[in-house]
């Protein structure tokens, strides 16, 4: 069942989403060559705890860390480790979810490490464009399929693959709620968007094919062809007139 948030619940959502966004802003200065993903995880963990919240991924169905760190060909759910040390030319997605006042806020972004090739920079830019254009489809009376349709079109125009096995999701009192927000779709199909709905949009766009595989750790998902993958994510509120990006960062334009 899709949860429609009350005005009080929306205010609590705003607070946890603001903290998730602030965590990404905080960690940005530490993302550089020579730093391990485990170091980044600890920094995020300490920041979230210091702000009176809890990192939602930690112990979620057994996930062992506080954030997900996905490097290069890792699509999503990468586990921070001491062995994963950032190198020049890498890209890294950090996925943060905070639990504050009994509500979750979820956001992620892809960072460029040092001198990244023009080919990969373009992938990252187009992935962010996919997120932005997907968000623009959010409005009362619209359909969830509208979001995936525009993302699929943009990625396809650039020859990129869109991951279909993992998707956005409703969020609130639970980390994952209905509806599922796929990043491929047909316009005019899927659940109707209504004011008070909150969900994530988080396209995973691959430089090569869309196909992926799950590693033996049961979490890490990589591209099947070994090519790089990028992702961006925001938590969105459906308003009476359109949308509100609850996890918007200060460095992003308010007018998408």
Short description:
With 256 residues, this protein is an alpha+beta fold.
* DSSP helix fraction: 25-40%
Number of discrete helical segments = 4
Q: Could you say what the CATH architecture is?
A: Alpha-Beta Complex
Number of strands: 15
Describe the largest sheet: 4 strands, antiparallel
Would you write up a description of this structure?
The two termini are 29 Å apart. The protein has a single domain, classed as Creatine Amidinohydrolase (Alpha-Beta Complex). The chain contains four helices and 15 strands. Helices cover 26% and strands 25% of the residues. With 256 residues, the chain is of the alpha+beta class.
Helices and strands in order:
Layout: H1 7-27, H2 37-50, E1 54-55, E2 68-71, E3 74-76, E4 91-100, E5 103-112, H3 118-135, H4 144-157, E6 161-162, E7 168-170, E8 177-181, E9 198-201, E10 204-206, E11 212-214, E12 221-223, E13 229-231, E14 234-238, E15 243-245
Helix pairs in contact: 1-2, 3-4
Question: What are the key terms here?
Answer:
4-stranded antiparallel β-sheet; Creatine Amidinohydrolase; globular; 3-stranded antiparallel β-sheet
